[in-house]
Amino acid sequence: MNKQKIIVIGGKGSAVVIAEQIYDTQLKTGEVEFLGFAFDDEAFYPEINGFPVLSNTYNVYEKYQKFSDVGFAFALYRPDLIKERIALRDSYGIPLNRWVNFAHHSAYVAKSVEMGYGNIFLANSVVNSNVKLGSFNTVQSNVLIGHDNKIGDSNFFAGHSVIGSNNTIGSGCFFGLNTSLNNYISIGDFVFCGMASNVIKSVDAEAMVYGNPARAVEKKIKPL
C-alpha cells in the first residue's frame, strides 16, 4: 500500500501546526509524508517553516489529481468566517475521497468511531467509543471528545476542549480554547463558543455563547 502523501491547503496559523504534526508523524512512523502547502499569499513563497509552497489553492488539485496517493487537508478556517471558508473549500472541486483523515501518532481515535473525510486529529487528542463524526472536523491538541457523540461537518475544536458524552453537535461550530460541554445536550449549526466557556445547556443554531455557565451574547467575533 502506498504511503499517504498530504498537501495542506493554507499557510498560516493552524495550517502550519497541522503541517508540522504531519511531518512529526512522518518522522516517527513513516506512514505519512508531508509534501507542502497550497497557499495564495505569494509573500510566503517559496517556503513556509522550511516546507515548500507547491501551488496556489485553486490549481493544486489540477496539479496533483493524477497522483492517487496524494490527499489534501483543509486548514483555512477562521472563527469569524466559517461559512465563507466552507464555501471556499467546496469551490475547489476536490472530490470528497481525496480529503484525508489524519491522526497524529499520539492521538487516540477509538476503533468504533465512524467518520467521513477530511478530519484532523492533532497530538494527544482523544475521540472515544461510538462517536459518529462527519467530515472536515479539526480536533486540536489535547481535546477530549466523549463517547456516543453525534457530530456534523466542519467543526473546529480548539486545544483542551472537553466534549462530554451523548451530545448532538451540528455543523460549522467553533469551540474556543478550554471550552467544556455537558452531557446529553444539543448544539445547533454555526454556534460559536468562546474561550473557557462551560456549556451546560443546549444551544440554538447561530448563537454565540461565553462564560461559566455559558450564556448567549451578541457581539462580533474578533477577526484573526
Keywords, please?
globular, UDP N-Acetylglucosamine Acyltransferase, domain 1, alpha/beta, 3 helices, Rossmann fold, 14% helix, six-stranded parallel sheet
Please, could you describe this protein's structure?
The protein is built from 3 helices and 24 strands. The chain has an 8-stranded mixed beta sheet, with no helix packed on it. Strands 7-10-13-16-19-22 form a 6-stranded parallel beta sheet, with no helix packed on it. The protein has 2 domains: 4-98, 3-Layer(aba) Sandwich (Rossmann fold), CATH 3.40.50.20; 101-211, UDP N-Acetylglucosamine Acyltransferase, domain 1 (3 Solenoid). It has helices spanning 14-29, 60-64, 82-91, and strands spanning 4-9, 32-38, 47-48, 51-55, 70-74, 102-103, 108-109, 114-115, 120-121, 126-127, 132-133, 138-139, 144-145, 150-151, 156-157, 162-163, 168-169, 174-175, 180-181, 186-187, 192-193, 198-199, 208-210, 215-217. The longest helix is centred in the first third of the chain and has 16 residues, at 14-29. The model has no long low-confidence stretch (mean pLDDT 96). The protein is an alpha/beta fold and 224 residues long. 14% of the residues lie in helices and 29% in strands.
